[in-house]
């Protein structure tokens, strides 16, 4: 089982939107039973980022973890969503 953490600044608003869209995509593409999803705020995840197979963020992340995080802002804007899904698929090796 792969683990996917979705974060935003507070762990409430935009991460909830992103989580819903990712869950729908996983269901549609048949990957839902392969991924456990978590949701939090970025400040709670910074020191445990390596505990997850992939992290999607809708907020700014510290420079030292940027290479480990998928930019989830396209899930909010609707522009570049397919690229986000591709990155998730690649990082989780689905």
Give structural notes.
The chain is an alpha/beta fold and 94 residues long. It has a single domain (2-92), classed as Response regulator (Rossmann fold, 3-Layer(aba) Sandwich), CATH 3.40.50.2300. It has 4 helices and 4 strands. The chain has helices spanning 14-29, 42-45, 74-77, 81-92; strands at 2-8, 35-41, 54-57, 69-71. Strands 2-1-3-4 form a 4-stranded parallel β-sheet. The longest helix has 16 residues, at 14-29. It starts with a strand and ends with a helix. The model has no long low-confidence stretch (mean pLDDT 96).
| CATH domain class name | Alpha Beta
Helix % is: 25-40%
Number of strands: 4
The strands making up the biggest β-sheet line up spatially as 2-1-3-4
Low-confidence stretches: none
Task: Name the assembly state.
Answer: single chain
Spatial extent as radius of gyration = 12 Å
Shape, per Cα inertia axes: globular
Distance between the termini: 10 Å
Q: Which fold name fills CATH's third level, the topology?
A: Rossmann fold
What string gives the helices and strands in order? EHEHEEHH
CATH architectural grouping: 3-Layer(aba) Sandwich
Q: Can you identify the CATH superfamily?
A: Response regulator
| Count of DSSP-assigned helices | 4
GO molecular function, one term: protein-N(PI)-phosphohistidine-sugar phosphotransferase activity
Organism: Oenococcus oeni AWRIB429
Protein name: PTS EIIB type-2 domain-containing protein
Domain PTS EIIB type-2: 1-94
């Amino acid at each position: 089982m792969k683990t996917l953490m979705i974060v935003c600044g507070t762990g409430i608003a935009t991460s909830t939107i992103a989580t819903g869209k990712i869950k729908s995509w996983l269901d549609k593409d048949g990957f839902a039973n392969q991924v456990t999803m978590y949701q939090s705020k970025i400040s709670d995840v910074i020191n445990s980022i390596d505990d997850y197979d992939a992290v999607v963020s809708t907020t700014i992340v510290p420079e030292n973890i940027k290479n480990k995080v998928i930019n989830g802002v396209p899930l909010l804007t609707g522009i570049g969503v397919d690229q986000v899904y591709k990155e998730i698929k690649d990082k989780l090796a689905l």
